[in-house]
Amino acid sequence: MTGQQGRHQHKVIVITGASSGIGKQVAIDFAKEGVKGVAIVARNRDRLNELAMEIQDTCECLVCPCDVSDKSAVISMARNVLDKFGNVDVLVNNAGYGILGKVQVQSIEEIESITATNYLGMIYCTKAFLSSMLIRKNGHIVNVASLAASFGIPGLAAYCGSKFAVLGFSESLSHELRGTGVGITVVSPIGVRTNFLNHPSFKKKNKSWNMRYSLDATTVSKSVLKASTSHRFEIVVPFFMRGAIWLKHTIPYITNPVIGKSFRRMMDLDNDTNHEN
Question: Domain total for the chain?
C-alpha cells in the first residue's frame, strides 16, 4: 500500500458534479485508493448509475441525484449520505458550468443559474457537511475553482465571477477553520478537456487553442486527491501558472490589457452580435 493510499484508506468521500469530467475521474481515483465509500452527486441519474457500476467493486458507492443549486435538495442529499455512512471525511465541491457570451446579450436567468450552481451550490454543500466535520474535528473540503478565479476573462463574466467568489469564500473559511481539525484547499486548474465546452455557446471557440492549452481530467484529479490531505490553501494546475497570477497582481496595467485582447480574439467575441443558447 502506498503512502497516498494509507492517507485515504477507510475514508468517506462526497463528490459533486460526478457524472462526467473531473468529478467522475476523482470518484474513480478515490475508489482505487482504498476508501470506505464514495457518494457521487450530480443531476444525471443514468450517468451516476453507470459510474457506480464501474467503482462499486472497490468501495461502497451511494448514488445521489441532486441539483446542487437547489438548497432543499442538497439538505436531503446530505442527510442521506450521513445516514448511510455516519460521517464524511472529504467533500469535493466540483459541480459547475459556464456559458460563453457577453454580459449585454446574456439573460439574467443564465447568469443567475451559473452563480447558483458554481457558487451557491458550493456553499449549500459546505454548510450541509461542515458541522459534522467540526464535531469530529476531522475533515477536508476541496473546492474545484479555476484559473478563472484569478483572471477576468471576456465572455465568461458570470463564470469568472462565480469562481472569484469561490476563492474568496474559501479563503475566509480557511481562516475560520484554523485549529479545528478541518481543512480547506482550492484546486485551480487551467482549462480542462471536459463537457464544459459542449455548451452551444462555445461553438465559435477556436478548437486548436482549446486542445493546445487544456489539461485532461486525470491530471486535475491527481491534484484533487493531493489537495484532500494538503495543508496548502490553493493548488494551481499546472503549477507554473502561479507565475501568471503573480504577474497579474504585480503589474496589472500590463497584463490585463494583454489578457483581455488575447481572450477576445481566441473566443471570437469581437465578431459576436447574436447570442445563441
Answer: 1
